[in-house]
Amino acid sequence: MDLRTDYLGLSLDHPVIASASPMTDKEENIRRMEDAGAAAVVMHSLFEEQINQEAAAVDRLLASGEESFGEALSYFPPLDHYRASEDRYLEILATASAAVDIPVIASLNGVSPAGWTGHATAMEQAGASAIELNIYYIAADPGESGREVEDRYLEIIRAVKGAVSIPVAVKTGPFFSAFGHMARQMVAAGADGLVLFNRFYQPNFDLEQMAVTRALELSGAEEIRAGLLWIAVLYQKLGASIAASTGVEGPAEVVKYLMAGADVVMTTSSLLRHGMGYLGNLRDGLGEWMDRHGYESLGPLRGSMSLSRVADPSAFERANYIRMLEEFEPA
Amino acid sequence: MSKPDTAPGRVIIDGNEAAAHVAYRSNEICAIYPITPSSPMGELADQWANEGRPNIWGQIPVITQMQSEGGVAGALHGSLQTGGLTTTFTASQGLLLMIPNMYKIAGELSPVVLHVAARSLAAQGLSIFGDHQDVMAVRGTGFALLCSASPQEAHDLALVAQAATLDSRVPFVHFFDGFRTSHELNQVILLEDEDLRALLPEPLVFAHRQRGLSPERPFIRGTSQNPDVYFQARETVNPFYSDVPGKVQAAMDRLAGRCGRQYHLFDYHGAADADRVIVLMGSGGETAREAVDYLCAQGQRVGMVQVRLYRPFATEAFLESLPESARRIAVLDRCKEPGSLGEPLFMDVSACLAGRRENLRLIGGRYGLSSKEFTPAMVKAVFDHLAGDELRHPFTVGIHDDVSGTSLDVDREFILEPADTYRAVFYGLGADGTVGANKNSIKIIGSDPARFAQGYFVYDSKKSGSQTVSHLRFGPDPIHSAYLVQSANFVACHQFDFIKRTDVLKLAAPGATFLLNSPYDADQVWSRLPGAVRRQIREKSLDLHVIDAYGVAAAAGLGRRINTVMQVGFFALSGVVPIDDALARIKAAIEKSYQRKGAEIVRQNFAAVDAARAALQQVTVPAGDDDGPPMEALVAAGAPDFVTRVTAEMIAGRGDELPVSALPVDGTWPSGTAAWERRDLSAQVPVWEPELCIQCGNCSLVCPHGVIRARFYDESELERAPAGFRSAVLRGRGYPEIRYTLQIHPDHCTGCTLCVDACPARSTEQSGKRAINMADKTPLLDAERDNLAFFESLPEADRGRVDFSTVRGVQHLAPLFQFSGACSGCGETPYLKLVSQLFGDRTVIANATGCSSIYGGNLPTTPWSANSEGRGPAWSNSLFEDNAEFGFGFRLSADTHRQQAEDLLRTLRPELGDDLVNDLINAAQAEESEVRVQRLRVEELRRRLGDLDKPEARRLESVADHLVRRSVWIVGGDGWAYDIGYGGLDHVLSLGRDVNILVLDTEVYSNTGGQVSKATPLAAVAKFAAGGKATPKKDLALQAIAYGNVYVARVAMGANPQQTLLAFREAERFPGPSLILAYSHCIAHGIDMRFGMRQQKMAVTSGHWPLMRYNPVLREEGGNPFMLDSQRPSIRLKDYTEREIRYRLLAATNPTAAESLMRAAQIDIDVRWGLYEEMATRGDASFHFASAASQHGEPPNQGGPHGPSN
User: The pTM is what?
Assistant: First the structure.
């Protein structure tokens, strides 16, 4: 069975990639994922905001009480071996890239223009095969227009592409008035691929504490639909790679995403549920399904259910909606 | 080690680092223990070893912290006896703990150097500051004593001592003045490794090793000797001591040959034909040298002898140093030996001169005890006195002794500040980074090879809201002035409010520049200045500038860190360095300091630097208009006479002016003086919302500073309440007419917000709002002061009617520990406050040295207080190591006097009556109501005794108070309980007497700056455990439980206040020894102190700190005495540790080690939890082991309230 695929110009043995997660923050885990069968690994996101907050907190807490009282001019040993979290990230990136044969893709979640390019350059120097920009922005200011938000995204992509020579993917959410158009603009701004979609850390309320909470649950198979729709719509219309993300519970979701038109499929939730070894199950499960259904390679499978394979695209879109209503039977 | 700046080998370091530089490189082993002011030497050695720096022989020295200085001395002795090159660093009582071994080490002619930052000894009071009492106390041990006077000397003579000890085999104490030299930043030219090797030939090292114990060439050393030979054997060493001066001088000469700095055993400085000479050692010599130069230039014939090698005293060398013309000599000792003919140096000089010089008058005087300032004016006063007709011996200089008349008059106008030296003084808040920035400025300026710099920093006696004063000098010549700046060209006040309370312009020279951090612009600030400040500005023609440093810092994202902003202000206005150079160097220093912490922090600081210069504004002083508001009172109106006369002067910084007669003769000070101090610590204070409040008492319980009080009272009282006084109906059944008020002490609140975090009541309409919330203080202050005055006029709760068993009840008990100077949000003080509330009126407290003795007893004002009846905790501190024994002594007296009282009651039974006698002896006093009744009986007893004219009646009167059950509390930190005092603590537990031991466990030596203790948990980073502690925390609870008859509890107020309360009451009631281990969050954990109580809870829910009680009473009743009071761990240890810098640091420095240690720590917790669970569910009989059963759990509490009766 030939499962080979290309993503961002990188040749992969198969389309199953471990997406950015707390699991991919250790060299050892990245090696284990390679052993388990990942075609590539996206390291956990370097959150610029978190780095800055951590640095500020460490600075404040270490300084508190210093040089105030004659008997204790400090409270901790000197920090000569201290490394800020970005340094640690880059070190893991460098060692992991050197230690494994599969591509290691760095992931960056920034807040400042300087941060986006500065960190991206450092990632390239540390040996990243590609960079995934995890653009996460809530337009909470009602005074900000959709155009302004879109420009913000595009500006980031242009800035990062201008700073690095390795491929850059953009992981984004679907919440744009015209996502298809937005996706095209992202590619026009330089994105080598899109990762569809990231999940928003939407708040919840704790009714006992009367406080806002920010817990993130694992994604489930029911969450693949937005991705399926837009991948199916954008297949072969972007001129860039497409990665599917969110909602991969088993091989079935991998197959679905590929049929919609994805070049690769990323997962974290299934690995958190079943362990890293599950990467192999996904790969093998894909192979078995293809075998059962008479596919010998990914080529014919990819995009087989995409919008471009339907004679009347607008009817597909409408029918999709109508069929759902027809199938809905009130209890 | 600090890297040299531009001049080759020249660095700016303090005396501690200067000495440690040589000690580290010339030894193989450092056995250490922290004690102020020597701790940084050990910390630096540890740091260098962690960095992998080798000594001059290529090895990395081994650094080991011991459990006490006594332990250090033992380890030192042992390693020396087996051929190790070993050193240590210590001071004060730490050095005293080494004395027994020092005799042995010297008796065995073992080469070693102890580096001592010389410090006062605890006598009538403890002092961390510098004098020579400690080193003088070891002059009989046989150690040679070599004294350095400056950081450079501390560096050079450390090597001389090391060379001389190896050469002579006589051990050395190398000492320098604590703080004045140990903490003074100054230029030091570093010796190269080659210099050290040249002075420390390896054959001497080999010879030392060869003399060590070895089974390859066995011998016995340390025999027991009898009258036949001991005396002769003691005399065998004489030739070695005779050789020491020559060998020291030879080492000094070799040093001079290599680096050009020539020292002598005694260095004379002054007129060749001087007739008046003073003799002294240490940093005072630097000051004396300045005064001598000045006086000689005026034509006076004066001189001074700087003593370097004090012991062995080199008679000939001293005589040679002293000019033949000398006729009158004053020997100055930084020491006090009550009852002696003179202090030690005087006595030695006196013996040296006797019969050798004619026509001499010799007197001795004391100066500079506990870092008392010693200025050129004082030197001049001594010379003036020597020129007078009548010579006083002994005399003192630097104080006003109106009791014994010893003191010399000092001309305050005599100030020697060289015109070409630029002097700057900075007033800062501990938290604002002023000292750190100034240390940086000194290095910036001092890196210019043509410029010399000096820095000295005066810290506060309190840990929260502490003021720092930085004294900086810069000039073209080396700076030797070993005293504070007396006349400043530049004064900076980094906190606007300081100008309302502190005379910050006292030191400003005429025409000086004054930089004030002000929220008001140049055109608005004048009207805000107190009149006294305006007058000084005008009279001294000061050049006033303001800068809104907080505004600049906040805009740059730096929050409240104004250090770089003010630093730019200093450079821009002082002109000591071209401003553009200065800015570049400030930025370079920022990059160096913060690079590791992240680029954003560097960027923010750069932004602050760039914005600061533009934010400076010069103030045009308006004509006239000197009638500004008065300075704020530092002490509340109505304070007692002593507070007004003595304490207030100390608070105002005028303690130096107090005469001897103003001070207590025996170290006894009045209680509760903190209440009179107006500190104004926080911009925000809590505000109570009566409608939301459920009156649970949590906020009051957790308040570390005792500023939240609750009272209930009849609603009729409200008729006289000020408008705005808040009140609610008392919750509970059937008291509609009783009102409840929660009142804040706005002047004492530190703004820690623990109360807000502890409040469980939440608004249903506004998320985040609770029954107590922080608000800006300024608009509330006047009203809150009025409210407080009214609140305090309300009747106190009747202690006999308060429910002691609930937190809700306890809030109504007045705290008799209040307004301490502990860190804002301290985790220890709430426990002490609770003790004071529950048992304070019959409690005596023995307090180990440490944080709790500092915030509990550091002058000028102290927190232990009395209640409205005049009763309250009686508190004392003995030492660090002996506190359990000290408190045990309290119990012995109490039990003895109780027994005497009972015996006398029986003797006087016929006169006093059976009923009263029986009741007094047999009354139960477990409950507060019963104690109250017993107090009434004692009153009645006193009335009846008053009518009795018998000696027994007088005797009984003297001990009758002991009929009320006395509560003995032994309090200290984990450094004391787990380490230095553990032997005593263990012994006291074993003796069965009724003492209550409270261990405030911060899991680290907090007071001396975060060194590891045996209470430090596995995987936590601490000083001396920079790689994370590799062994688990000692389970002191299990050790105590092993006795069987000790009450043991482990508590964490933030996790379960009710269990804490229960444990304290059970422990106190238990008639034998009790041990309470109290989790105390601490600034040394690297946590946001606002969430200290939350962190306590996580310590418990993670299983790190399981709550438990072991109550032998239950065992006596046939039950299982072990009670596990917390639930099975519900979160992982990591969830708790990731919120603390002490754990996170390791993950950032060595992730692999962090992961491995954290795994081990989790396993340790799981295993321990299993053990606890097994104990808690064990069959009752398994606890009734034989030794305990034989005692029937009855401790030998002779005569105690539960003891035998008639």
Answer: 0.91
Residue B1074 C-alpha from the chain's centroid: 27
Runs of H (alpha helix) within B616-653: 641-642, 648-651
Cβ distance A67 to B457 less than 8 Å, yes or no, reads: yes
Q: B950 Cβ partners below 8 Å, 6+ apart?
A: B908, B911
Whether the predicted pLDDT of B4 surpasses 50: no
pLDDT at A51: 81
By residue count, chain A amounts to 331
CB pairs under 8 A between A and B: 149
Tell which residue, A21, A46, A57, A185, has the closest CA to residue A115: A46
CA distance B169 to B204: 9
pLDDT digits (tens, 9 = 90+) for A148-177: 999 999 999 999 999 999 999 999 999 899
Is B1007 annotated as catalytic?
yes
**Where are the strands (E) in B161-204, listed by range?**
172-177, 185-189
- The verdict on a CB contact (< 8 Å) between A77 and B436 is no
How many whole angstroms separate alpha carbon B494 and alpha carbon B563? 9
Contact predicate B344/B311, CB 8 Å: no
Name the pairing type of β-strands A168-172 and A193-196: parallel
Q: Does the pLDDT at position B1011 exceed 70? A: yes
pLDDT at residue A130 in the model: 97
Q: Does A121 touch chain B (CB under 8 A)?
A: no
pLDDT band at residue B592, thresholds of 50, 70 and 90?
confident
Q: Which residues contact B859 (CB under 8 A, 6 or more apart)?
A: B125, B461, B650, B669
pLDDT value of residue B234:
97
Is it the case that residue A313 has pLDDT exceeding 80? no
Helix B599-615 with A48-63: angle, nearest 10 deg = 70
Determine the distance in angstroms separating the CA of A251 from the nearest CA of chain B, rounded to an integer.
33
CB B429 within 8 A of CB B495: yes
- pLDDT bin (cut points 50, 70, 90) of residue A182 is very high
A76 close to B (CB below 8 A) = yes
Region B50-68 average pLDDT: 96
Check whether B1203 has a pLDDT greater than 50: no
DSSP H helical segments within B862-991, as ranges?
Answer: 883-907, 909-912, 914-922, 928-946, 951-959, 974, 982-991
Name the H helices within B173-222. Answer: 193-199, 202-210
Nearest to B743 by CA among B777, B707, B779: B707
| Amino acid occupying residue B1005 | Y
- Strands B1108-1110, B1122-1124: parallel, antiparallel or unpaired by DSSP? antiparallel
Beta carbons of A84 and B1148 less than 8 Å apart:
yes
By C-alpha distance, which of B256, B277, B359 is closest to B321? B277
Cα–Cα separations (whole angstroms), residue B605 to A186, B376, B609, B610, B711? 35, 41, 6, 9, 48
Q: What ipTM was assigned to the predicted interfaces of this complex?
A: 0.91
| Pairwise CA distance, residues B802 & A35, whole Å | 68
Q: What would the mean pLDDT of B1138-1163 be, rounded to a whole number?
A: 92
